[in-house]
Amino acid sequence: MVKSPVEGSTVVMVKLERPVKLSDFVHPVCLPQEGASLNLSYCNTLGWTRNRELLKRIELKASSMQSCENISIPTVNSFCSEPAYPTIGC
């Protein structure tokens, strides 16, 4: 596993021993070119439950950097978001 050299980044690369078989659940992801304009209104992310037993998906919506600055110190690599649906807790 190769950790990103960029401080605060949570992106890693994993070198596999053999090629993976593509399926409905396994497929390549396309990353945007540097400087590309993105529509970041909604996105999905994964996170562990509090007891760290289950990995769950949550849909998020983008929020302003100002809303993040009210509760944390965002970095250049930060993405401010909140649950897409109010009933979902993070």
TrEMBL record:
Q: Which domain of life is it from?
A: Eukaryota
> Which is an annotated GO molecular function term of this record?
serine-type endopeptidase activity
Q: Which InterPro entries match?
A: Peptidase_S1_PA (IPR009003), Trypsin_dom (IPR001254)
Domain called Peptidase S1: residue spans: 10-82
Looking up SUPFAM superfamilies in the UniProt record yields: Trypsin-like serine proteases (SSF50494)
Which GO BP terms sit in this record?
proteolysis
- Provide the protein name: (California timema) hypothetical protein
The species this protein belongs to is: Timema californicum
